[in-house]
């Protein structure tokens, strides 16, 4: 008897659903203890639409092919000293920020999705989260391998994961990741899959990966292409979970909207670091932060939320402010890094004349007016030998943990945006209404924040002086400070000089 | 004749990441396994406590009673990181795919005696639920474990179990010409038939275990140590003699998988027991507890699979497991 043919959908359903069961010796609520406390109501998990239909055998096969190609490129890059083909070694600051600030988030996502892969009650949703959990592990591991060769030839890449737990500006990504991980499963997936991966991922990925392509970093760009098909799976999951929650029960809408508002703002603040990277660290920039924001958030994000409005979901709160800030944030963040360049794990450098011309063109309303004078002033000081790094430590926002550098861009761009609230007799400080709102909704959570500056003052970071703190960070003296005159710079010149001699001969 | 390709030689300024230099020195570059899995997980300065577990920090080592001075003293002897893991499994799935296609194309199940097919439906097909549970348990281990070496191991194991649950399901479909009768019957047996209830009860109790390392022992050491040798090895051999060699072709993946898995469970037993007497005692207690419980739970299944010889077969498998664990440093195990 010839076997009947199963269509793919049915086949996938049989291979993922129906293997789980309603437990009877233990209560389902004890087996799945975490999926109800957030107040999300799920009436029928079977309504979950699998966002992608990959059985494990297909997963192994596709992913193995991608891995083989990726490692072939990484090996060849190392063998041929691909680092010498970069546009400039100052570009490495972007990679240093990436491996210390982004790669650890990939690992956090791996653990977070593994939790969901165990704790969502629906079989289909669990499998989808497991696939993402192992993909995130892939990204962490392949990033470490891709960047390993750079670590052999440049400073500042040697202890990324140790530093993620300690360094002042890395508490920005760390607190972002741990905020999501310590939330319940539905909030975690809203934060990571939707707010971050769906709405904002292009603003992280495109700047880094196109930046790599524009600056001769073949290793990173190959990783980027290789990860792209994983990312598109993750985005599909992000959209599915939102639709699923909203379709399951009308009571879910206000909860999801609040999470959307919160995690949009949280992720957006984290991306301020990316904005600085994109506009200032890249020798050749494919597009400005402002251009990327307009395309990926204003246009694409706008269309997405229009589509979601049929569920009653509106644009995240304060999105207009984020758009207004797009003219400012990269300059503000790069300024703070330059002014504290003796305490960063990557090299800082003032924008060249050429770069400033580009910035003037890309930011006609703000760069010349507000930021160029600052950089020119510092350049003059450096020339005269009077430049000094900022003394004293900056005040941090209790939520995003970025120093208080953002300004009232809608009214007076020279005025620092500063918010404060009281809780339990103590004052808490914020960079924005977005961050203040987040605190006020869950003060018990956010009073716990491990704020690097407070911790330094309390003596928990190696000692009271800057050298002691930097030593505790495992920042070697050659990791920090100006790019010009650094060991990285000297090595680069040596390679380029050697190249030149070969050409002349 | 050898030729020399002239290439630029550039001396590196360091050979590996700092954590690996501290662990292994910097005489030679670190391996890809070392780079991928060591010291990735955050260990300190956590921002917030989980809303769903206010008694613990994220990645809290106190979520298990096992204490390790260094959680990275365990290394996977297979040295799996994502790349080597997927490439290995990809090769294995190619063989499996070929076997499934061959059985399908040649209608090989037509030549399997009905009595053997019925045994497959009743003994093997319900194992899709057991593998599904193993997937959940290993996800739990991945989420709760301490150290990126453990979460990597747990993750790969979890996905393997999903893969095997899917292979078992495909056997269940293939045996009945893609009708769902066998898998429906297996689900019903899993939920209702007396011979499966002891095992299902034990597995549901495993779902609610607090200590992830105890779960590791119950699932990956003891339950797997009974089921794989008994059902994917001995039972397969038995039905092969009875005319069911076709089935063995379709479970080759599981057989290979278990042989590979034993390598890391042995190492893990050894490293954990060696660390301290307290760890050693915990391992002994947990192995005894779950070996007792799961052997009793498996008895009716063993009888169903092997008839009157079932109890004996199961006892032998248990003996092998206890001997292997003893050899790897888990002493004081209770023999029946």
Keywords for this entry:
heterodimer, A: 505 residues, mainly alpha, Ribonucleotide Reductase, subunit A, two-stranded antiparallel ribbon, 4 strands, B: 336 residues
Task: Provide an overview of this structure.
The complex is a heterodimer of chains A (505) and B (336). Chain A is mostly helical and 505 residues long. Chain A is built from 21 helices and 4 strands. Chain A has one domain (51-504): Ribonucleotide Reductase, subunit A (Orthogonal Bundle), CATH 1.10.620.20. In chain A, 62% of the residues lie in helices and 3% in strands. In chain A, strands 1-2 form a two-stranded antiparallel sheet. In chain A, strands 3-4 form a two-stranded antiparallel ribbon. Chain A is globular, with a radius of gyration of 24 Å. The longest helix of chain B has 30 residues, at 212-241. The radius of gyration of chain B is 22 Å and the shape is globular. Chain B has 336 residues and is mainly alpha-helical. Chain B has 13 helices and no strands. Chain B has one domain: Ribonucleotide Reductase, subunit A (Orthogonal Bundle), CATH 1.10.620.20. In chain B, helix 11 (252-275) runs antiparallel to helix 12 (277-306). The chains are: A mainly alpha (505), B mainly alpha (336). At the A-B interface, helix 1, helix 3, helix 5, helix 6 and helix 7 of A face helix 2, helix 3, helix 5, helix 6 and helix 7 of B.
Give the number of DSSP strands of chain B: 0
CATH superfamily placement of chain A: Ribonucleotide Reductase, subunit A
Overall shape of chain A: it is: globular
Which architecture of chain B does the CATH hierarchy give at level 2? Orthogonal Bundle
How many domains is the backbone of chain B divided into? 1
Strand fraction of chain A equals under 5%
Alpha-beta classification of chain B:
mainly alpha
| Rg over C-alpha atoms of chain B, rounded to the nearest angstrom | 22 Å
Percent of residues of chain B in helical segments? 55-70%
Strand order, largest beta sheet of chain A: 1-2
The proportion of strand residues of chain B reads under 5%
Mean pLDDT of chain B comes to 96
Give the class-level CATH name of chain A.
Answer: Mainly Alpha
CA-CA gap between termini of chain A: 77 Å
Q: In oligomeric terms, what are we looking at?
A: heterodimer
């Amino acid at each position: 008897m010839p076997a009947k043919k199963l269509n793919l959908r049915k086949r996938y359903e049989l291979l993922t659903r129906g293997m789980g069961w309603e437990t009877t010796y233990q209560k389902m609520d004890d087996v799945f203890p975490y999926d109800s406390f957030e107040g999300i109501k799920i009436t029928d998990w079977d309504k979950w639409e699998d966002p992608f239909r990959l059985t494990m055998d297909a997963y192994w096969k596709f992913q193995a092919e991608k891995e083989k190609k990726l490692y072939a490129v990484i090996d060849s890059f190392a063998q041929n000293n691909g680092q010498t083909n970069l546009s400039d070694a100052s570009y490495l600051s972007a990679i240093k920020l990436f491996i210390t600030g982004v790669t650890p988030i990939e690992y956090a996502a791996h653990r977070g999705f593994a939790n969901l892969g165990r704790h969502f009650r629906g079989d289909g949703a669990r499998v989808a989260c497991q696939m993402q959990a192992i993909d995130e592990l892939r990204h962490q591991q392949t990033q470490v391998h891709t960047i390993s060769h750079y670590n052999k030839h440049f400073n500042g890449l040697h202890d990324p994961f140790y530093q993620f737990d300690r360094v002042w500006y890395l508490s920005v990504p760390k607190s972002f990741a741990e905020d999501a991980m310590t939330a319940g499963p539905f909030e975690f997936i809203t934060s990571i899959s939707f707010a971050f991966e769906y709405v904002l991922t292009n603003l992280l990925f495109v700047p880094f990966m196109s930046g790599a392509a524009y600056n001769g970093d073949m290793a990173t760009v190959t990783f980027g292409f290789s990860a792209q098909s994983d990312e598109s799976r993750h985005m599909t999951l992000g959209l599915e979970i939102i639709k699923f929650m909203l379709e399951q029960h009308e009571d879910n809408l206000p909860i999801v909207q609040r999470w959307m508002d919160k995690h949009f703002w949280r992720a957006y603040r984290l991306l301020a670091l990316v904005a600085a990277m994109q506009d200032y660290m890249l020798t050749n920039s494919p597009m400005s932060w402002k251009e990327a924001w307009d395309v990926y958030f204003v246009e694409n994000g706008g269309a997405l939320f229009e589509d979601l409005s049929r569920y009653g979901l509106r644009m995240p709160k304060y999105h207009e402010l984020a758009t207004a800030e797009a003219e400012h944030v990269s300059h503000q963040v790069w300024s703070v890094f330059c002014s504290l360049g003796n305490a960063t794990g990557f090299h800082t450098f003032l924008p060249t004349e050429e770069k400033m011309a580009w910035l003037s063109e890309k930011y006609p309303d703000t760069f010349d007016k507000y930021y160029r004078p600052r950089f020119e002033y510092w350049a003059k000081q450096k020339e005269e030998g009077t430049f000094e790094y900022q003394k004293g430590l900056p005040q941090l926002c209790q939520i995003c943990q970025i120093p208080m550098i953002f300004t009232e861009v809608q009214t007076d761009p020279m005025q620092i945006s500063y918010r404060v609230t009281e809780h339990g007799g103590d004052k808490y400080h914020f960079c924005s209404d977005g961050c203040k709102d987040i605190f006020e909704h869950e003060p018990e959570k956010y009073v716990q924040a491990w704020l690097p500056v407070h911790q330094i003052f309390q003596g928990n970071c190696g000692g009271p002086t800057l050298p002691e703190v930097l030593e505790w960070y495992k920042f070697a003296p050659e990791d920090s400070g100006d790019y010009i005159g650094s060991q990285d710079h000297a090595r680069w010149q040596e390679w380029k000089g050697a190249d030149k001699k070969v050409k002349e001969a | 004749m050898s030729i020399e390709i002239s290439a630029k030689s550039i001396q590196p300024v360091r050979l590996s990441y700092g954590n690996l230099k501290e662990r292994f020195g910097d005489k030679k570059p670190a391996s890809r396994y070392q780079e991928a899995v060591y010291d990735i997980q955050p260990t300190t300065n956590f921002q917030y406590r989980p809303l769903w577990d206010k008694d613990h920090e994220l990645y809290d080592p106190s979520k298990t009673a096992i204490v390790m001075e260094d959680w990275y003293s365990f290394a996977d002897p297979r040295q799996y990181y994502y790349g080597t893991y997927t490439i290995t499994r990809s090769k294995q799935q190619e063989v499996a795919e070929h076997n499934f296609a061959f059985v399908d194309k040649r209608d090989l199940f037509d030549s399997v005696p009905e009595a053997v097919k019925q045994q497959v439906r009743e003994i093997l097909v319900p194992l899709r639920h057991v593998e599904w549970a193993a997937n959940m348990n290993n996800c739990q281990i991945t989420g709760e474990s301490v150290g990126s070496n453990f979460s990597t191991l747990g993750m790969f194991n979890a996905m393997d179990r999903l893969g095997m649950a899917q292979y078992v399901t495909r056997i269940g479909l293939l045996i009945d010409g893609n009708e769902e009768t066998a898998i429906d019957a297996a689900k019903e047996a899993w939920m209702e038939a007396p011979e499966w209830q002891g095992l299902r009860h034990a597995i549901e109790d495993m779902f609610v275990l607090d200590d992830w390392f105890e779960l590791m022992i119950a699932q990956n050491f003891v339950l797997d140590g009974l089921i794989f040798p008994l059902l994917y090895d001995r039972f397969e051999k038995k039905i092969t003699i009875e005319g069911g060699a076709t089935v063995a072709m379709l479970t080759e993946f599981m057989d290979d998988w278990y042989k590979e898995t034993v390598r890391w469970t042995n190492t893990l037993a050894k490293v954990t027991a060696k660390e301290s007497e307290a760890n050693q005692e915990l391992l002994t207690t947990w192995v005894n507890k779950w070996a007792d419980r799961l052997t009793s739970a498996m008895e009716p299944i063993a009888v169903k699979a092997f008839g009157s010889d079932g109890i004996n077969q199961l006892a032998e498998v248990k003996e092998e497991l206890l001997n292997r664990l003893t050899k790897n440093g888990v002493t004081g195990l209770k023999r029946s």
